[in-house]
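User: Some background: our group keeps a shared notebook of sequences we're curious about, and every so often someone picks one and asks for a predicted structure to add to the entry. Today it's my turn. The entry only has the sequence so far, pasted here. Could you supply the structure so I can complete it?
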Amino acid sequence: MRLILASQSPRRAHLIRLLGIKNVSIIPSDVDESLENLLTAEGTVIELALRKARALRDKVVSHSIILGADTIVVLDDMILGKPADPDEAVSMLHQLSGRTHTVYTGVALVDTSTNEERHFVEHTDVTFRALGSEEIESYVATGAPLDKAGAYGIQEDFGAVFVSRIDGDYYNVVGLPLCSLYQHLKQFSPELFLEA
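Assistant: Of course. Here's the predicted structure to add to the notebook entry:
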């Protein structure tokens, strides 16, 4: 039994190893992430997480649990995904400045032997301090925010100094809600945690 992370995110790859599961594989899932007609943040992240996990289901021959995940930032009911370019990243950070937004992560689990699926959503409220234009532009110039929802990373780069308060799971903001994920995996597939 192994856990397959359907992701190309180095942040998620690092986080999944914190769970103590011995047999983990990282296999990127290349899926269409465009969505139409989904009205809720929860619906968006669940649909994308399921797409990622299901895309690998038929490619995996051994008994495995496939984990797909997707994270978005929501401000005033508007979804802020990964910025398309530096100008959009600057715009997003100006919008987030001095305000509280919500980070949603959807997680989907698929058992390749039974085709059973489970999914859940975690949300965390994040408050930014007021940001200056110069620091926003300096941060965007590093290129770091261009592959991150909401145009910032809370870990391992300068984006961490923008955050003045977090209400909820810190790791959810990084990309995987570890506390909830651990509990769901223990229920869904306890054998993942047995010693190899």
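Suggested note for the entry: The first strand starts at residue 2 and ends at 5. The mean pLDDT is 91.
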